[in-house]
Structures are given as structure tokens and as C-alpha cells.
Amino acid sequence: MRDTRESRLLLVLLIAVAFALITVDIRGGENSPVDGARQAAATVFGPVENGMAAAVDPVGNAIGAVRDSGERHNKIADLQRENEALKQKLGSDARNRSRLNQLDSMLKTAGEGQYGIKAAQVIGIGAAQGFSWTVTIDAGSRDGIKRDMTVLNGEGLVGRVTTVGPSTATVLLANDPDFTVGTRMENSDELGFATGQGDRPLSVQLLNGKAKVKAGDRLVTFGSQADKPFVPGVPVGEVVKVDPSGGDLTRTIYVRPYVGFTKLDIVGVVVQAPRTDPRDQVLPAKPKPTPTPTVTVTVTPPANPNQANPNAADPNVPIPNGDPNGNPNGNPNADPNADPQRKPNAVPGGDPNNANNAAADGDQ
């Protein structure tokens, strides 16, 4: 249809008529004069509408399914996010509990050794393959950290500070091959030098080649001059192997460190050394040996010894002829009821083969 003046007037007229019909329909209510026309239109166009609806329903259902699927996907995604947040929260709580336990253990160690420490967290770890065993902590010069300070945790010696930045510091771990610390053995006070061997036990050279050492003996740090880089009394580890003494001036032993260098988290830097050497006070308490149960069996003898064997001979009565069975003839195989005055039949000529004949003659 061309856009002309007449077409515009017709459009305006149709709109006016539509509004007029709507107004009359609303005012008429149930007795609307256009109700008949509406019913006729419904009769004519109703089947057409149903047919169109039936044809369009699959498309509409598909669209609705897609829409509902999107809503369900969004709900599932929301639930997954909530679950992840819950898991992170639970994991964070477990990690916080672990850190709290580490901090408590470290503060206990510091208290027993009278060490003034600055707590820090490991935020980076150096390569362990072909490079130095080092970690980075989140404390630096602004926190009073200086080079060559002892680093420990609740288990024992961790290492020493090698590099210090404003807010971070690098710690050389005690298991690094370039790490060496003076040690002292518990009780015996034998001195030595421990050197790291990576993931293997520390190698300790004892200055006394004839020192008496056994597996299970424990070592602590001996301490350095002016307490740098090591303060005294920090637990180092436990002896696991002793090389045989070959008459050398020194003796090599191998020590399993107390600290797990692959799972460090909370550590403490000793910023104030103890006034006196704590000696062995910081070492962990030795486990108590488990007692071995002992079973005692007591045998009660009978009141009368003869009751045990009624047929046994009275020990107070002498045994005639030395026969242990009490036979008067002195023959263990003789009949105890036989007449002791009767002599046994003699065998003529001393031939034992004639014994039966002699017995037969006696009967005749």
C-alpha cells in the first residue's frame, strides 16, 4: 500500500473506530452490542488458532526447554560455586588450625630456649634439583631481620638467613650441601660439624674419633660466636647410623633432622639470643618405653607327697638290697609277693639253656 494522504486518513479512521468499539464494549459489559460479533469471530477463528497453536507448540516447548535448561544450569552453577566456597572455607579452617598448632609448638620451643623470635610464613621455595635448598619468608629488614640469623620452628633447626630485603628474606635450609653447623651431643657433649645432604640424613663429623655413639642419640646446636649465625641449644636431629671407628681422628655419624624441610609453613627468626645456653632443655621429651607384660605361673605342691602317687614307696623306709622298687630279692623283675626265704632254682653247670629242664625235674 502506497503512503498517500488517503491511506493516512483511512488509518486514522480505523484507529478511531477501534477505540469507539472498545469504549462501547467496555461500557456494555455482559450486554455489549459487539458480543455477538466476538462470538462469531471466535467460532470462525478458534479452530484456526488451535491449529496454529498445535503447529507452534513444539517450537514453543523447545524454546521453553532451552530457557528452563538455562535456569537449571544457572542453579547448578550457583550450587557448585557455593560448594567450592564451602570447601575453600573448610580447607582454610583446617589450614588455619594447622598453622595455629605450628605457631603454638614454635612458641613453646622458643620459650624453653629463651629465644626471642619473629614469626614468619614461608611464601616461596627454591629449586631443590641442582640448586640451593632455600625458602623465602615474608619478613625482612623492616621487621628487624638481619643476615646470619638462626631460623627454627617447633621441631628444631630450619636454617639461617642469607639474604634480607625490605619485606622478605631468604633462608638457607639445614639440609643444603653448603650448610654447616656446629653440634653438641646430648649428655656426652661430644662436638662435631653437621653438613646437609639434600633429602638424605645430615652427615656429622665428630671431633673425637673414639667417641661412643649409638643410634637414637640426639644433637643440638653448639652455638656461634656472638650467637651468629647460630644460637645454642636448638634441636638438630637424631642419630640413625654410625660408621665404624677406623682409628681416624674424626668419626662420621648420620643424623635424621627433626625438621621436615619439604613441608615448611610457619617459622621463627631468632632476633634475640638467650642469655644462657639452654643446653638440652629444648630437646623433645623421649618417648616412654612400653612395658612388657609378664605372666607368672605358680605350682602348688600337694599337702602329702604320697598323695601324688599312692603306690610310691615311703621315702622314710630304707630300700632292701638297693632295689628302687622295694623287691626283697634285689631283682627288679622279681615278684614282690614271692617268699623271700625260697631260693631260686639253680641251673646245672651254669648253663642257662638247662634252666627249663631243671625246673621240670623239680616238679616231678
From TrEMBL:
Biased composition (Low complexity): 293-364
Signal sequence bounds: none
Pfam families the record matches: MreC (PF04085)
The keyword Plastid is assigned to this record: no
Keyword field: Cell shape
Gene3D superfamilies: Rod shape-determining protein MreC, domain 1, Rod shape-determining protein MreC, domain 2
Family the UniProt entry places it in: Belongs to the MreC family.
Database matches in PANTHER family: CELL SHAPE-DETERMINING PROTEIN MREC
Protein known as: Cell shape-determining protein MreC
Species this chain originates from: Streptomyces noboritoensis
Underlying gene: mreC
